[in-house]
Amino acid sequence: MNFNSPQFLLFYPIVAVLNFIVPRKYRWIPLLIASYYFYMTWNAALVFLILFTTAVSYFSGILIEKKPEMKKLWMILSVTASLAVLFFFKYYNFFAGTIGDLAGTDLTLRLVLPVGISFYTFQTLSYSIDVYRGDIKAEHNFFYYALFVSFFPQLVAGPIERPGNLLPQLYEEHKFNTSDLSIGAKRMLAGFFKKIVVADTAAVYVNAVYNNAGETGGLAIIIATVLFAVQIYCDFSGYTDIAIGCARIMGYRLMQNFDRPYSAENIRDFWARWHISLSSWFKDYLYIPLGGNRKGNGRRLLNLFIVFLVSGLWHGAEWTFLLWGLLHGIYRIVGELTYQKRNALYGKLGLDTASKPVRAFRTAITFVLVCFAWIFFRANNTSELLLILGKLFTDFGAGTFAAELGLTPNGALIVVLAIAVMILMDRRLTLTEYASPTGAKLTGGVSLYMIWAIAFAWLILLAGDGSSAFIYFQF
User: Fold this and answer.
1) Which of 1, 280, 440, 445 has a CB 3.0–4.6 Å from the CB of 433, allowing a cystine?
2) What is the DSSP code (8-state) at residue 112?
3) CA separation (Å) from 160 to 122, 125, 241, 311?
């Protein structure tokens, strides 16, 4: 069941109403049933996986608390069991295929990738580790814990919630609130607009170019890559906006996952704004345990590199994703090593690093670097990646990027206008305290209500059947 499907538009209001009318003591029942139903609409046969990881992490939390002398063992067993499930279903064929190619035999299996497995696995991992560290108390009600793992708004594509944030909210009283309704509905509308109008429109041209790499030239690839940067941002942040909005209407506050990442002035800043729940997860549960910045600069840079390699692998069991992570790791290391020299160069040139022109220049360079890395992410496989990179640098022609590849003059105008409205939306969402309990009023600038009106009208005109899946469902 996609957010952008007719089924969800029927499912969600029913669940939201039940959330308010069922007494707090029993509210977990309809929410848990709804969450598992939501998950099972994708593949009911794989529900045992989320049940298994939920049960293992739940009982490990109890044992860690009851038998502190063996808590490390229970934590390791929980983490190992959850990662084993993730590895088998998501990565077995990747490694088996690589080994099989070297050995001249087929070792792969016919496996179905369970939707959202990377997201809910990371939530169960953070729970076990947090209980082990003593950061939170173990949850003794299995059903509340199962609801934390499977909470439907963020189940299949995040944000990756922390138990310290979401679990306590499941016990709180949530009465209907018009402020939450207004804020959540607008957030959902922004998400639908990003996905249906911007991402799905840009995808037409992106797919036409990247799925016909042999017929396109360098200019077409550049245009498609910039549009893919827009597409993946609007697709993923659109899902997050809908998830946050759904939860907010019901009184729950999920963590922010994006903060205008393409306004970043360097790669470090980009990752502080992009997929924040994953970046912070890797920081807390991988980078710091590896030693963080406590063991010298060389070890710190190595730890950063490892985190980005793992991040690339987390996104998919393909060499293209691993190379994408490696490239971002190189960006970070080069950026760290050249930071002082670059600032010194600005000083010699008499440029103020805080001035708007310099900041705009840095933002532009960062965007170019991020877009170049997106080529690795979007390429269908390594052979096509090499073909695209070759054309990018040796065949700087327009190719056949005309109507047959999806970019008609009207299509180009729609994309440009949609991106403009999206930028205004994002700016207003950031400048106003959208995720705050107070829901601060708007002051100055373009009326947000005018933007919502435009967005709603555009959705009605251009939504189509709303059937395309979100990109991050495959991760």
Assistant:
1) 440
2) -
3) 7, 11, 14, 14
Q: Residue 197: its pLDDT value, please?
A: 82
CA separation for the pair 342, 45 (Å, rounded):
55
User: Are residues 201 and 147 in contact, defined by beta-carbon separation less than 8 angstroms?
Assistant: no
CB contact set of 180 (below 8 Å; sequence gap of 6+)? 248, 249, 250, 251, 439
Q: How far is CA 157 from CA 39, 257, 469, in A?
A: 12, 11, 11
The answer to whether the CB of 435 falls within 8 A of the CB of 242 is no
- Rounded CA separation 108/96 (Å): 6
State the Cα–Cα distance between residues 121 and 365, nearest whole angstrom. Answer: 35
Residue with tokens 């799905």, as numbered in its chain: 200
Find the length of the chain: 475
Q: How far is CA 203 from CA 38, 136, 209, 470, in A?
A: 26, 42, 10, 11
Q: Which residue has the higher pLDDT, 401 or 154?
A: 154
Choose from 6-10, 298-302, 401-405, 445-449 the range with maximum mean pLDDT. Answer: 298-302
Lookup: tokens for 199: 């991402």
Structural contact between residues 345 and 328, judged by C-beta atoms closer than 8 angstroms: no
Measure CA of the first residue to CA of the last residue in the chain; give whole Å: 16
Type of residue found at 137 = K
**DSSP code of residue 138:** P
Residue found by looking up tokens 């490694």 in the block: 95
Q: Catalytic amino acids? A: 315
Cβ atoms < 10 Å from Cβ of 245:
26
Please write the tens of the pLDDT for every residue from 219-256: 888 989 999 999 999 999 999 999 999 999 999 999 98
Neighbours of 300 (CB within 10 A): 18
